[in-house]
Write a structure and sequence with these properties.
With about 280 residues, the protein is mainly α. It is built from 9 helices and no strands. Helix 3 packs antiparallel against helix 6 and helix 6 runs parallel beside helix 9 (about 230-275). It is globular and about 80 Å long.
Length: about 280
């Protein structure tokens, strides 16, 4: 029990620190409402602690199937920290911020090519956006997207090379997929495969669709102004993280369906062997 409480508290603290990181490192005049940031950090801590301290799962998937959720957290934390350091370079440059700002410019030039998601994000901006805002968005989108791709690649290696989730012991579908009801909707394997493919496809397409939708509706709805550094950090992190998280969820569900199907084949083979004997 002590280990569970300690682990839940540590996870909650890490999530809360991630939430307040931009507000802590950026200058005070770039933060419009620090009270809201503190409130969100407390809420994130309470939700994370309650989920991981509970014996029964509620809404967090793959709770006992590392390193999926750890990779997700590391990816989002990396995006937030890198973008915070890059944004801080404009207000209080240091050797560290200069290094990461230079890396951001290099990454942005590498991934900003025609029809890339980063190019679409830049084209999403209104015509009256300043050159400084355009460059900041290009760098933030490029860094976030590269981190998201690296995270998906790391989880793919964990699945294909390390055989996730077999290395972590028995996989409990009820604990790791609390929102999935295996008793309804037909065959479990077919449903997992369908949901997994849908998540992968949506995760691949969303970085392209979101900028296109924002641009198409810009006449009806004012696009989000990304000249504020905190808005830029969280918007670009969400734009890259959510599709990557969906792809990883789809890969995990496809892997679970393969394991269930393999277990069924072994059970059928054993039954046939017993009948033959």
């Amino acid at each position: 029990m002590i280990a569970r409480i300690t682990g839940a508290a540590l996870r909650g603290i890490l999530v809360a620190l991630m939430v307040v990181t931009p507000a802590l490192y950026l200058p005070g005049y770039t933060t419009n409402s620090p009270e809201i940031v503190v409130l969100l950090a407390i809420l994130a801590f309470v939700l994370t602690f309650a989920e991981y301290n509970s014996t029964f799962p509620s809404f967090i998937e793959f709770r006992d199937a590392p390193p999926l959720n750890r990779l997700r957290f590391i990816a989002l934390m990396t995006m937030v920290v890198l973008l915070t350091l890059i944004c801080k370079h404009k207000y209080a440059p240091t050797n560290v911020t200069t290094l990461f700002a230079g890396m951001g410019v290099l990454i942005a030039h590498l991934v900003d090519f025609p029809f890339s998601p980063v190019r679409l994000v830049v084209l999403m901006l209104p015509n009256h956006a300043t050159l400084d805002t355009v460059n900041s968005v290009r760098i933030a989108a490029g860094v976030s997207y590269v981190v998201a791709l690296a995270t998906v690649g790391a989880f793919y290696i964990a699945v294909r090379v390390r055989g996730w989730p077999i290395g972590n012991g028995a996989f409990n579908v009820w604990i790791n997929l609390p929102l999935f009801d295996p008793t309804t909707g037909g065959d479990v394997v077919s449903r997992l495969q369908r949901d997994g493919r849908i998540n992968v496809v949506l995760g691949v397409l969303l970085p392209f669709f979101i900028p296109a939708i924002v641009k198409a509706t810009s006449d009806l709805v004012n696009p989000i102004m990304l000249d504020n550094p905190q808005t830029l950090i969280w918007t670009m992190s969400a734009w890259a993280f959510l599709p990557a998280s969906m792809i990883m969820r789809g890969m995990a569900m496809l892997r679970v369906s393969d394991l269930i199907e393999e277990k069924r084949r072994r059970a059928y083979a054993n039954a046939e062997a017993v009948q033959t004997a």
